[in-house]
Task: structure prediction
Amino acid sequence: VLPQLERDADSELLADPLAAHLAETRVHATRVEHVFVAAGAEPAAAASAALEGLRRQYAELAGAIVEPRLRDLFLVSAAAKTEHLEIALYAGLIPIARQIAVDVDPLELNLTEERNALSALEHAGTALLARTPS
Ligand SMILES: [Fe+2]
Result:
């Protein structure tokens, strides 16, 4: 989802935090893989129906918004939904990992970065909104 959002962003207020979080997200995947290996599980890529639903919803609606500032505001909303979902996933996963005595520090770090990404998006959204004529 993030690469598409980054390509579609018009304002640097949005493109910059999206690019930064895209780089973080690649590290997140590596951390999660290591946690799964530490737990004795085989890491495997699996499609998320929830994320796919968000991606489809974005793809269906984004093209209909031609005004760049409004599209960026829609993009903020779409990206924030993704971050909320990821935050919920880590919030559910961390107690389970802790219960089976797996080091949760990498997951906690991912969670912190997801929360920071959401905060950056919210700040970008506020700044974009201030630039939008009423
Ligand atoms: Fe994220």
Remarks:
- Helices lie at 2-8, 12-38, 49-62, 68-99, 105-131.
- The pocket of fe (ii) ion is lined by residues 21, 25, 83, 86, 114, 117 (CB under 6 Å).
- The two ends are 29 Å apart (CA to CA).
- The CA atoms of residues 87 and 111 lie 6 Å apart.
